[in-house]
Write a structure and sequence with these properties.
Largest sheet: none
Helix content: over 70%
CATH architecture: Orthogonal Bundle
Strand content: under 5%
CATH topology: ABC transporter involved in vitamin B12 uptake, BtuC
Order of helices and strands: HHHHHHHHHHHHHH
Shape: globular
Distance between the termini: 30 Å
Radius of gyration: 19 Å
Structural class: mainly alpha
Number of helices: 14
């Protein structure tokens, strides 16, 4: 028991911080309750998928600056195709959008592996490429989402657990369904080994190149889920990438994933996303000027990323 507590001490600390912030929010706004938690869950949904995408790539020892752009491509693809689609065909469209995300991620990974150009350079270039693709598909917000898609994130489950937000359940189920099988497979071991020491992994028989491509493809899948969640929440497609890049990096670092790769998981970043979204909600409830709120939120993210970078440098010197 003690060993498990030590192993998951960072996540336990994040949960404690989240509970504390929920209590502070209740003090600030006594009316904050189940509806407030539901709103928080909906607001955190696309950020959670973006953080999951970034976490997988960071664990393998890379970074993907095109996460938000891939979300935009998926969002507009789904919205345009669903605008006049029937219920049955909209399900197929949703799966097609996920495949588009996997393809975009695989292209990113393949370019990194084949060109041997640093991840940050390749994905920065692909950020503009995917952003252009999104604008080619839809020049302005538009399209439509299937009714069943928008209903999937509204309200609670109903019955005895009616207070549990659908958005929170959708977030947990989708991330667990993708990540848990991967983490406990040979691919998962290869991802962590490559992130820890690519040369040692290669000498141990790990196909480092294919592992990196697979990690980027998984990140593309999570980005596609994030794009679909945007379409669910707004009912339309959004071709302009949202503020998900820096937020995802901050959540990954705050969630205990080492920027050097090889350590961490996805649970911590997801909890971190809820913490960061809750801080923004608290500032809003305190009637803080929206511009000041943006400054505070950005400052927190920059500090978190800087501290994570310092820890990474410290680990490398060892």
């Amino acid at each position: 028991m003690t060993r498990q507590v030590r192993k998951h001490s960072w996540n336990i600390g994040l949960v404690a911080l989240l509970v504390l912030l929920l209590g502070v929010t209740k003090l600030i706004q006594p009316e904050f309750g189940l509806s407030g938690i539901e709103s928080l869950s909906r607001a955190a949904l696309p950020f959670a998928f973006a953080a999951a995408a970034m976490a997988v790539v960071v664990i393998v020892g890379g970074i993907d600056l095109s996460v938000a752009s891939m979300m935009a491509v998926t969002s507009v693809t789904a919205a345009v195709l669903m605008e006049h689609a029937s219920g049955g065909s909209s399900v197929a469209i949703a799966f097609f959008a996920l495949l588009v995300g996997v393809a975009m991620g695989a292209i990113n990974g393949s370019l990194v592996v084949l060109t041997k150009v640093p991840d940050i350079v390749v994905t920065l270039a692909m950020l503009f490429v995917w952003e252009g693709v999104a604008l080619l598909i839809l020049k302005a917000p538009g399209g439509a989402a299937a009714d069943w898609l928008t209903a999937a994130v509204v309200g609670g489950l109903g019955g005895a657990v009616g207070w549990v937000p659908k958005a929170l359940i959708l977030m947990a189920v989708c991330i667990a369904a993708v990540w848990l099988p991967v983490k406990h497979s040979k691919l998962g071991l290869s991802i962590y080994a490559t992130g820890s020491d690519a040369l040692a992994a290669f000498r141990s028989g790990v196909a480092v190149g294919r592992t990196r491509i697979a990690a980027y493809a998984i990140a593309g899948l999570f980005s596609a889920l994030g794009g679909l969640s945007l379409t669910m929440l707004t009912g339309i497609g959004e071709p302009v990438p949202g503020p998900y890049l820096l937020a995802s990096v901050a959540a990954v670092v705050l969630g205990g994933v080492a920027l050097g790769g090889g350590r961490g998981g996805l649970l911590g970043p997801i909890i971190a996303v809820l913490i960061l979204r809750l801080i923004r909600l608290m500032l809003t409830l305190m009637a803080v000027d929206p511009n000041v709120t943006t400054i505070v939120e950005g400052t927190i993210m920059v500090i978190v990323v800087m501290v994570g970078g310092l820890f990474t440098l410290k680990d490398r010197r060892r």
